[in-house]
Structure formats: C-alpha cells, structure tokens
Amino acid sequence: MKLFSSLKQRLAQTIHQPVGQAVSTGYQQVAAGTAEAKGRELRDSWQNASIPEKQRAIVDPQLKAYRDGVAVPVFDALVESLMVNVNDLSGSRVLEIGCSSGYYSEVFEIKGLGLHYEGCDYSSAFIDLARRLYPGIHFDVQDATELKYGDASFDIAVSGGCILHIPEYSRAIAEAARVSRRWVVFHRTPVLHMTGPATYTKQAYGVDTIEIHFNEQALVRLFRKHGMHVVDINTHSIGWDAAQSDAMAMKTYLCEKITTHD
After folding, report:
1. Nearest-CA neighbor of 185 among 75, 74, 73, 78?
2. pTM for the predicted model, two decimal places
3. Least CB-packed of 31, 129, 212, 241 within 10 Å?
4. In whole angstroms, what separates CA 255 from the centre of its chain?
5. Angstrom distance (rounded) from CA 231 to CA 181
C-alpha cells in the first residue's frame, strides 16, 4: 500500500490536469446519467472564435523548438508511430481530422515525411487561421461525425486529439475508419485502465468544454467493432485521475483496417 501511495503521488505530480495544465482547468466529473446531455450542450464549444489564436500562441514555440531539434513528446508520438510502421509514407495522402490551425503539417515537414497533408476541423475560425498560415494546403470545415469525403479517400486518417471532445465519439471513430484506405491514428487520447469511461467538464482556453477519459479495453474493442486493429501504441504522458482513482495516460493509437489487409 505504501508503494502504491508513493506511485500515485508521483503520477499526480507528473500531470494532474490531463490535456495540459496551461490550457485546461477546472475539471468536474459529470454524472453518468447526464453525460450525454452535457456533451450535447457543450458540443459546439470548440467553435468559439477566441480559441485558435490562444492555442497558436502555445504551439508556435513548440514548433520552433522542434525545428531546432528539441524533442516534443506529443509530436514525436505521432511521427514515430508512422515512421516505424508505415513503409510507404512518402507521397501518402493524409487527412487530419480536428486539425486546429494545421500545425501538424509543419511537424511532418520538419521531420521530412513527404506526406500530402490535408486538414479539416469543426471550427471555421480554426480553418480560417489554417488557410492563412498554410495557403498551399487544402483545409475544410467538417464535422468529424459526418465527414463529406468519399470512402477510402486517404491513405491515412489522423483523428487529431478530437474524439475526447465529441459525445458521439463512436460515430467519429467510424468516420475516420471509413475515409481511410488503410491506416487510422487516434492521437492524444486520454485513457483509464481499470475504470471509465468518464466525462468531465473543464475550461479550455477559457471556454467551457467536455473531455472524455476512455476505458482503454473498451476503446480498443470499439476500434475493432469499426473494422480496425491496433498496431502500435505510444504513451506520451501519464498521470492520475483522482476522481476515478485510476492511472490516466495520454496515448496515440495507430490502427490498421482489418477488411483491407487481414
């Protein structure tokens, strides 16, 4: 018990606020019976026009550091999963769903992956900023649960840390799988290991939003239900969800479509 208590304290010190102390505060658990309604109520929060510039002010120094050769674990989680597992990366068409201001196009460029990148986001304000910053890249305003792209339109679909904010996350997972020819990545995903899923309200960039912490086993089974199996998992931060008394990790899952290659 003493060893467990010590471990819990160290985890809590590592990352008490799950997505990032600088931007996410005021976590309050939502009762299971009201989680769906609360999710619908706050579903459009990320369309708030004040968020993109605030997020970009945090991202720009990270991009500069990455370009200077400094490791950024959350960037490396996605880059390394692709580089290690996907043999034909160069020239592959990649769609990032929930692309924010499109900064992962720059992450991929820094590492020389040679991808043909496109992005979409639920927020027109984010897409306006992405188009200004990266005028040579195609961006769309899209709902992750109802994408307008055709089946297998992209070699790789990256769900860019957005299913945690989507109450209808099963539909978003299914859509990411549908538009991909082979590979699907669920990036920056908060998972619990003994409990969950659990829904929280929080403030992100000063705006009321929701955040879902998934049960890892249930999430992996959901990937399977939608025709994918997990090929690689990268854990890029770990902490303690005090409300659940459970270890909470931020992970990136690389999945392969079963129907195409199994």
Report:
1. 78
2. 0.90
3. 31
4. 14
5. 15
